[in-house]
Design a protein that fits this description.
Length: 427
Amino acid sequence: MEFTVEEMRRPPQVYAWSRFGHPEYTDWLDESLSWKQTCSFGDWSFLWQHRFTGPDAVRLIADFSVNSVEQWETGRSKHAIHTNRDGKVVHEGVVTKFGDEDYVVHGRGGFWLDHQLARGDYEAQCQQEDWFVFQVAGPNALAVLDAVTDTRDLLTTRFMRISQIEIGGHPVWALRQGMSGEVGFELQGPREWGEEIRQLVMEAGRPFGIRRIGARVTPINHLEASYPTIATDYIPAIFDAELADYLAEFRSSMPDFAQPAYIAGSYDGQQVSEYYRSPIELGWGRNVRFDHDFLGREALEVEKAFPRRVLRTLVWDAEDVQDVYASLFRPGENYEYMDMPRDQRGFMWADRVSLDGATVGVATSRGYSYWFRQMLSLSTIDVAASELGTELVVHWGKPGGRQKEIRAVVAPAPYKEDRSRGHLGAR
């Protein structure tokens, strides 16, 4: 089936973000402070997990990932990025090496690698796993985990490495990561004891101000910490005719009511490919290594040497944003509603960004940060317009409809200071 931009602009039948859990657990204002002030608990168990084993498992990953597999020691995780022939992102996610011939892929990338495994000459096998994935992050994260397990191994765990701990008598993998830009650990294990683990961690976290984060604020930590997200900041590059068989396979893995992407916003793209992005445009250039051959290498070699667009944060003008809301209280046509803290329907909300009337980029992930008291977005911007402090305009509204010009200032991505790395100290 061939998709068009118009089909992707149709609203979903259900709130797509429901996969993140309940909309709120306390309230979204309270929850959005937790990963900066106390501790947050996020549930990413909806992610798919695929285990690849066999002597050619690592070659399969290398052939279809921009990442280097050299010196990949056991216990290390990588943010693996998979691209098409044009160097546009197909999928991405975390891959962990559990052994010399044992790799677990978290996210949609497992479907892509399994697709290539079935069509290539690889001595490897793929098995879908069913794990819980809980993220515990924030300044009190270690104190919370210390209440349920021996954290001595965690203190010496380096960023993007795993350690095995025990919680409630169950062996649990703890991956040190920082999707919120704070110290965090991702707890992983068989789903059968996931609910028990969740209850133990939440109970232990009460004295430390733990908050379970719901669907309203889960994407805000990605925005503040600059972690571009599939179907939010880019459309997966799987809608070209040559990938029709893979698209059919992938769609069969999703609920009947869902499709891989929805589009909204003022950017009036005519082709789905206009919403594709490369790893360079999304700020992942450091992951792209040319020490091996992979699908998309030739295109990315050129782009990495001569990038056209880069990732930045845009800080939207408060008075202009307030006028969007004020229009709801004035007679006549109001501006497009701006959901708080961000769109809840699961669209890739792509808004045109201009300088002196000319389009210079696309704003995505628009969301309100209660911590910064600002409306922010990520944006892929032309290099020439990307200098920090540059004043741009975001066009808010539908193509062909009433639009509000919102002033915006170019800021770094990530916008929030990254505190996720570094030594944790000794106990």
